[in-house]
Specification:
Length: 336
């Protein structure tokens, strides 16, 4: 059965998320500017340094972002007071039993966020994303679901990274080196998509959707290479923002929960026989989210499932292969 946090905790989480979104807009240095590229509209912070005009990427145009930008010059509390208010919300969430991060991972997430990784299209995927659905869906995890992995997976669209005309600062490689991460060897000399921590077991991987063959791609906005994977475009389309209850809160980007659940069914079916433990974990995460979403967001779950099935016979075969081993989840999806 799906267990929930209190209504107070759920409200506190969304207060923290809204405060972090407002905080990012409050950091604008110049004039918010709309820029259209390839049929999409993006917001930039345009400001002058000497005789040059710089553009700092804010995000893709949405009604929520446009509204926050329109209000950004309103009188606000001092920055230190805003930080303390967010810290109080984080303490409340931790007291209510929300999952936290160990100091090393929390500091790394905060540093990557400060460098602009998530603002520039980076999306946290994998178990770290799964843990963050706790706040979005007001879920209470058991001990097995709460287990934290040492691996951090960040995915981004190559085309978006090329189009943004903005880069992470400081560079992602510099951020990782400050946390004792070094490039892991790859099949392509001089290029890497994995960074391993020399002082521990942590691993950071960068991923991007493969629209043709899989291989390494450049992500110019992040200044790193990424491993291209099939089916990833489905996962990270239309991501959402999430708040990490660490210090005064960290704003990141994660996949939509319904897409995460359906994608896990595909990933579980694609794994090799020697990855049975990972396949089991994929199906367990998918089953948990499918049960929760079937209660709270059945339409979103139905749309995500139908979208995946309409992408071709191979997609349907992967889904059917996983659901054949998950009768309860199959029944829930069939009843939507």
């Amino acid at each position: 059965m799906v267990s929930r946090h209190s209504n107070l905790a759920h409200a506190a989480y969304h207060d923290l998320l809204h405060a972090l979104k407002d905080e990012r807009i409050s950091e604008l240095r110049g004039t918010p500017t709309r820029v259209e590229r390839n049929g999409r509209v993006y917001w930039y912070d345009s400001f002058r340094i000497g005789n040059q005009v710089r553009k700092h990427y804010i995000g893709e145009d949405t009604p929520d972002l446009a509204s926050r930008i329109a209000r950004h010059r309103e009188a606000r509390e001092p920055a230190e007071q805003r930080r303390r208010a967010r810290s109080r919300l984080v303490r409340l969430l931790r007291a209510e039993g929300y999952l936290g991060l160990d100091p090393t991972t929390g500091s790394l997430m905060a540093a990557l966020a400060a460098a602009g990784v998530f603002r520039l299209g980076g999306t946290v995927v994998g178990t770290h994303a799964f843990r963050l659905y706790e706040g979005e869906l007001n879920l209470r995890y058991d001990l097995t679901q709460a287990a934290q992995t040492d691996d951090l997976d960040i995915a981004s669209f190559e085309r978006l990274s090329l189009a943004l005309d903005d880069v992470a600062a400081p560079p992602v490689q510099k951020v990782l080196s400050e946390f004792d991460f070094t490039p892991a060897p790859s099949l392509e000399p001089g290029r890497t998509w994995r960074w391993r921590q020399t002082s521990g077991h942590a691993l950071v991987e960068f991923l991007t959707p493969a629209f043709q063959h899989e291989g390494l791609r450049d992500l110019p906005a992040l200044g790193v290479q990424a491993q291209a994977l099939h089916h990833l475009n489905y996962l990270i389309a239309q991501p959402i923002q999430a708040a990490i209850p660490y210090r005064s809160g960290v704003l990141v980007q994660i996949p939509r929960p319904e897409r995460y659940a359906i994608h896990k069914l595909i990933v579980a079916a694609r794994r090799r026989d020697d990855d049975r433990l990972k396949s089991h974990k994929d199906r367990a995460q998918a089953a948990f989210l499918i049960e929760a979403l079937a209660q709270d967001r059945p339409d979103d779950l139905l749309d995500a499932h139908e979208d995946a099935r309409e992408r071709g016979p191979r997609w349907r075969a992967y889904l059917d292969r996983s659901l054949a081993r998950m009768p309860d989840s199959a029944n829930l999806l069939g009843s939507l």
